Amino acid sequence: MKRRDAIKRMGYAAGFVVITPTILGILNSCTTEVAKWTPKFLMPEQAEVLIKLVNVFLPKTSLPSATDVNVPEFIDRYVDEVFTIEDQQLFKAAFSNTMTKISKHQGIEALDEVKDSQLKAFLDEHLMVKDEVDTEREANPDFKGKTTSEFLNTIKTMTIQAYLTSEKIGEDVLSYDPVPGAYYCGDLESLTEGKSWSLD
């Protein structure tokens, strides 16, 4: 399936998430150009890795990339402003652990030199999907933190949610009606050419 079609229909997968006014406020205030962005919570090296990760998840095609709609800035601010102190500590520890594993996996010292192809290879090995066994969790079921796979899935989920909720994607990609005046009965294919509603 082409990425544009996948994004149009992703609303189904992410539709269960409740986006509060606070979260929308954070997202809409993330407008800094990625080259000028200074993270609030993450260390600079972590921010560099986050930028690369989100762009591996959602690279630029005919649609904007994740960084084009300020996803890294949103994730950083969300962790800083919404997570509890305990969750922040777990997030930071999981991020550090993941960065160490990326370095060892790719045999590189400076993570700002990691290439997209190297990150993809790392994700292929460590990002578990439904019904796959997380060997790290299986080996230590009482571990209170996040395994590498759990951390990467958290980043992936936050990336997709922020991307789909961004103003640019909501207005330019998904079906957008800022002031709905009437309700229609029918299937999504005939009403919006298969696009999810951006304001659902």
Give a written overview of the molecule.
It is a single chain. The chain is mostly helical and 200 residues long. Helix content is 56%, strand content 0%. It has ten helices and no strands. The protein has helices at 3-14, 21-28, 44-57, 71-81, 85-106, 116-126, 135-139, 148-165, 167-172, 188-192. Helix 3 packs across helix 8 (148-165) and helix 4 (71-81) packs across helix 8 (148-165). The two termini are 23 Å apart.
Main features:
mainly alpha; 200 residues; single chain
Topology:
Blueprint: H1 3-14, H2 21-28, H3 44-57, H4 71-81, H5 85-106, H6 116-126, H7 135-139, H8 148-165, H9 167-172, H10 188-192
Helix pairs in contact: 3-8, 4-8
Mean pLDDT: 77
Share of β-strand residues: under 5%
Helix content: 55-70%
Main sheet attributes: strand count, strand direction, barrel closure: none
